[in-house]
Design brief:
2% strand, 2 strands, 321 residues, single chain, globular, mainly alpha
Length: 321
C-alpha cells in the first residue's frame, strides 16, 4: 500500500514537472487543437490550444510505475505487458493526432484504421490472459468460464473502453478527473485482492491524471488529445482484464459507459426515426446546450462517478472479505 502511494506521488510530481516544458514545446511548434465544426459554438475559442498532452501524462505514469515496481520487487511479466499496452495505445493516439496536424483539421486516422490499431494492441494482454487459462468472469461467488470466446470478449472490452474514454474527453478536465476516480477505485480493489503490481500501476495512472489536471482544468492550457484518451481507456480496460475485474468496470467506469451509450442511442434513433434523443452527443454536449456551465458538468459527472466507484469498492470488499 505504501509503494502504491509512493507511485501516485511520483507520477503526480513528474506530470507537473514534464507538463511545463512540453506545453512550451507545443506552443513553439504551434501544435494546437482543431475543433470539430459540429461542436458547440462555445468550443470555438478552444481552437489552437496545445494538444497531445497525453505524452507527458503517460510518460509520468509509466516512469512512476516502473520505479515503484522495482522498489516493491513486483516486476512481473503481466505488469510490464500492461505498461507496454499503455504505451502502444499512446502511440496509436499520437498517430491519430499527428494526422490532424497534417490535415489542418479535426480529421485523423479513419475510423477503420483506428479500430484495427486498437484491436491489434488489445490482442497482447488478452492472449496473455487466455494462454494463462484465466478465461473466466467472476462476480462474488459466481464464475462464468468463457473459454475460447474470451479473446473476443477481452478485445471488445479493451477496445470499447479505449473508445469510451476518447468520447468522454470533450470538456476541460472531464476525462482526466473521472480517470482519477476510476483509477483510485481499481487501485483499492487490487490492493484488497493482493495484486500489488497492478495496484501500483493504477496508483501511477491516478497520480499522473491528477498532475495533468493542473494544466487541463478549465480553462485548459493543454488537451490530452487521442494520445492520452486512447491510452487511458486502453490501460483501464487492460487493468480490468489482467486483474479479472471485467464486470466491475460497469460501476467503476459508469461515466465512460453513459457517454458511449448516449452516442449509440443518438445514432440508432436518428437512423431509425430521423429524430435525435439528445440535443447533441456525447451526453456532456447535451448538458452544455441545456445551459450547464462546463465546470458544473465536470463536477457533477465526477461526483456521479465517485458515488458509483465508492459503492463498487464497498460491495467488492463485502463480497471478498
Amino acid at each position: 500500500m505504501i509503494l502504491a502511494i509512493v507511485a501516485a506521488l511520483v507520477a503526480f510530481v513528474l506530470a507537473l514537472l514534464l507538463g511545463v516544458p512540453y506545453i512550451d514545446f507545443l506552443k513553439k511548434k504551434m501544435l494546437g487543437q482543431y475543433i470539430r465544426e459540429e461542436a458547440p459554438e462555445s468550443h470555438a475559442q478552444k481552437g489552437g490550444t496545445p494538444t497531445t498532452g497525453g505524452v507527458f501524462l503517460v510518460t509520468a505514469a509509466v516512469v512512476a510505475a516502473v520505479v515503484s515496481l522495482f522498489m516493491a520487487e513486483k516486476t512481473s511479466t503481466g505488469a510490464f505487458l500492461l505498461l507496454i499496452t499503455f504505451i502502444f495505445y499512446m502511440f496509436a493516439g499520437f498517430q491519430d493526432d499527428s494526422q490532424k496536424f497534417e490535415h489542418h483539421a479535426n480529421k485523423g486516422l479513419s475510423a477503420r484504421g483506428k479500430l484495427i490499431l486498437q484491436i491489434a494492441i488489445a490482442c497482447l494482454p488478452v492472449m496473455f490472459v487466455t494462454i494463462s487459462g484465466r478465461t473466466f468472469l467472476t462476480f462474488g461467488e459466481y464464475t462464468l468460464n468463457l473459454g475460447y470466446l474470451y479473446p473476443v470478449f477481452g478485445i471488445f472490452l479493451i477496445t470499447g473502453v479505449s473508445n469510451a474514454v476518447n468520447l468522454t474527453d470533450g470538456l476541460d478536465g472531464l476525462a482526466a478527473s473521472n480517470m482519477v476516480v476510476s483509477s483510485l477505485a481499481l487501485a483499492i480493489i487490487n490492493l484488497i485482492m493482493g495484486n500489488i503490481d497492478i495496484a501500483i500501476i493504477c496508483a501511477s495512472v491516478m497520480g499522473a491524471c491528477l498532475g495533468f489536471l493542473y494544466f487541463n482544468r478549465h480553462p485548459a492550457k493543454v488537451f490530452m488529445g487521442d494520445t492520452g484518451s486512447l491510452a487511458l481507456g486502453g490501460v483501464l480496460g487492460t487493468i480490468a482484464v489482467m486483474g479479472k475485474f471485467e464486470l466491475w468496470l460497469i460501476p467503476i467506469g459508469i461515466i465512460f459507459l453513459l457517454e458511449t451509450l448516449s452516442v449509440m442511442l443518438q445514432v440508432t434513433s436518428y437512423k431509425l426515426t430521423g429524430k435525435r434523443i439528445f440535443k447533441m452527443s456525447p451526453i456532456h454536449h447535451h448538458f452544455e446546450l441545456c445551459g450547464w456551465k462546463e465546470v458544473t458538468i465536470v463536477k457533477v459527472f465526477t461526483l456521479v462517478n465517485f458515488i458509483f466507484c465508492t459503492g463498487a469498492v464497498l460491495l467488492f470488499w463485502y463480497l471478498n472479505r
